Amino acid sequence: MAKNAPGEVVTGGGKAAVKKAATARKATPVKKAAVKKAAKGTAAAKAAVENAAAGKKAAPVKKKAESRTALVRRARRINRELAEVYPYAHPELDFDNSFQLVVATVLSAQTTDLRVNQTTPALFAKYPTPEDLAAANPEEVEEILRPCGFFRAKTKSVMGLSKALVENHGGEVPGRLEELVKLPGVGRKTAFVVLGNAFGRPGITVDTHFQRLVRRWEWTEQTDPDKIEAEIGTLFPKSDWTDLSHHVIWHGRRICHARKPACGACPIAPLCPAYGEGETDPEKAKKLLKYEKGGFPGQRLRPPQAYLDAGGKPAPPLGAG
Questions:
Q1: Where is pLDDT greater, at 50 or 7?
Q2: Span 27-48, mean pLDDT?
Q3: CA–CA dist 187, 194 (Å, integer)
Q4: Cα–Cα distance measured from residue 239 to residue 33, given in angstroms and rounded to the nearest whole number
Q5: What mean pLDDT comes out for the span 179-205?
Q6: Reduced 3-state DSSP string for the chain
Q7: pLDDT, tens digit (0-9, with 9 covering 90-100), for 39-77
Q8: Mind telling me the catalytic residues?
Q9: Is the pLDDT of residue 178 over 50?
Q10: Tell me, what's the pLDDT at 267?
């Protein structure tokens, strides 16, 4: 009979059994975090420790659900924090009137606002009104819109909506959601951009940045834009909707990127459930910042003065640089 550790007695093939047991324990180490939780008396953590010692895969410990009240408070605090970071947030499409805005927003599908801003000066110089664009030669419009991508489909949309404005609205862009969404190429996202920024009527703009961030922040689990819009709308007063959209979209473009968010440079990191998905080192994160935060030109050729005062730079015209 041979003794192993204090309290252990091994019989028969003693030494071989001891060696095998020691090897098994070494191959399946117990994580310090699990041990720490177990010391606090957490049943789930204790089970994790036991499973790890036995070489079994531990079941994931469920995170405590956030109450509705806590979610609303956190969401509104994030919006307040972003409002301080981006007090100059604005639509990043150049426009002088509601017609230019609706056309530019339709053109922004599947391309950048910068590319649209570089393209629309020539378009609006040649076709300044709905009447002009509705009567244009499609091939000439296509040539102007070619840099925007999908230029044939976009030509059809902007000429179609221009014709609808002339025939059904006296050449004026309607200020009602139900009328805007009937225009060719105009969905709810485009309609809310126009309503919020040309008519001052609140709306939530659910673009790709908005969708990504509100899911990262666990404000919603929805994936359909209309359902996201409806669910997020319940977290905020209606008067906040337009500015909320700007704050979230700006943060998505500048810091909380799709592939590598700059977590280490994020002003709302303490409020973010997804902190750590991106670069957490502050110095490395700073190198990921875009536009005015990173010292680079923005999206607009003609940005508001507040943006310039904050250190933002105008974008270059098409073909420059």
A1: 50
A2: 41
A3: 11
A4: 45
A5: 96
A6: CEECCCCCEECCCHHHHHHHHHHHHHHCCCCHHHHHHHHCCCHHHHHHHHHHHCCCCCCCCCCCCCCHHHHHHHHHHHHHHHHHHCCCCCCCCCCCCHHHHHHHHHHCCCCCHHHHHHHHHHHHHHCCCHHHHHCCCHHHHHHHHHHHCCHHHHHHHHHHHHHHHHHHHCCCCCCCHHHHCCCCCCCHHHHHHHHHHHCCCCCCCCCHHHHHHHHHCCCCCCCCHHHHHHHHHCCCCHHHHHHHHHHHHHHHHHCCCCCCCCHHHCCCHHHCCCCCCCCCCHHHHHCCCCHHHCCCECCCCCCCHHHHHCCCECCCCCCCC
A7: 433 344 344 435 444 544 444 445 678 999 999 999 999
A8: 189, 207
A9: yes
A10: 97
Cα separation, 107 vs 122, whole angstroms: 14
Report the amino acid identity of residue 166.
Answer: V
CA–CA distance, 46 with 43 (Å, rounded to integer):
5
Cα(11)–Cα(171) distance, rounded to whole angstroms?
97
pLDDT of residue 64: 78
Quote the CA–CA distance of 82 and 209 in Å, as a whole number: 15
**How far apart are the C-alpha atoms of 94 and 114, rounded to whole Å?**
9
Q: Which of the two residues, 33 and 131, has the higher pLDDT score?
A: 131
Phi, psi values for residue 307, rounded to 5°: -70, -40
Q: What are phi and psi of 166, to 5 degrees?
A: -70, -45
Residue-wise pLDDT for 247-298, tens only, equals: 999 999 999 999 999 999 999 999 999 999 999 999 999 999 999 999 999 9
**Phi, psi dihedral angles at 106 (to 5 degrees):** -65, -40
